[in-house]
Amino acid sequence: MRISIAVASKHGSTAEIAAAVGEELAASGHDVSVHDMATASVLELDESGAIILGSAIYYGHWLLPAEVFTEDLSLRLDGRPVWMFSSGPIGAPAQPDPTTVDVEDQLVLTQPREHKVFAGRLERARLHRGERAVATALRSPEGDFRDWEEIRGWARGIARALDDVHSATA
Ligand SMILES: Cc1cc2nc3c(=O)[nH]c(=O)nc-3n(C[C@H](O)[C@H](O)[C@H](O)COP(=O)(O)O)c2cc1C
User: Where does the signal sequence lie (predicted)?
Assistant: First the structure.
């Protein structure tokens, strides 16, 4: 099946999650394309049988390009299955609590099969000056907390769910 992954990332770590999800789905035999929501058109996803949307979390929300893209896409979904992921919480245990991300609008618009929150990466050297000030004020831990086995396992679960859909309709 053709699967599109559309992602919004400011400092690259969420884009790398999208790439890993894409690798797993491709390994399961799917035809996968990854789109940057900051530059892609929703029309590029028209031929996809399933769609995965993901964004980094900043200040409790998805990045603006992800919010705009998702709203536009929602008019063209036509019942196609959607999965969503967010990436942000930092540290061990990861903070803030993954449930604090406000993606209510995106959930209502796309009715995803699942919304998964993955831990993120925060490296001060990559941040802009204002972001660094916020990270310092919040005493955010620094590091790469992404759990690749969790991420790849989630992608394999999507592949299995799509197989089930396919065999039920075959
Ligand atoms: C200024 C700033 C604000 C952030 N706000 C949140 C937040 O509200 N919730 C959260 O879970 N993570 C937050 N994060 C952590 C980022 O989501 C995390 O670093 C993520 O992995 C960045 O993804 P990217 O590399 O794709 O941009 C924030 C990070 C920065 C620098």
Answer: none
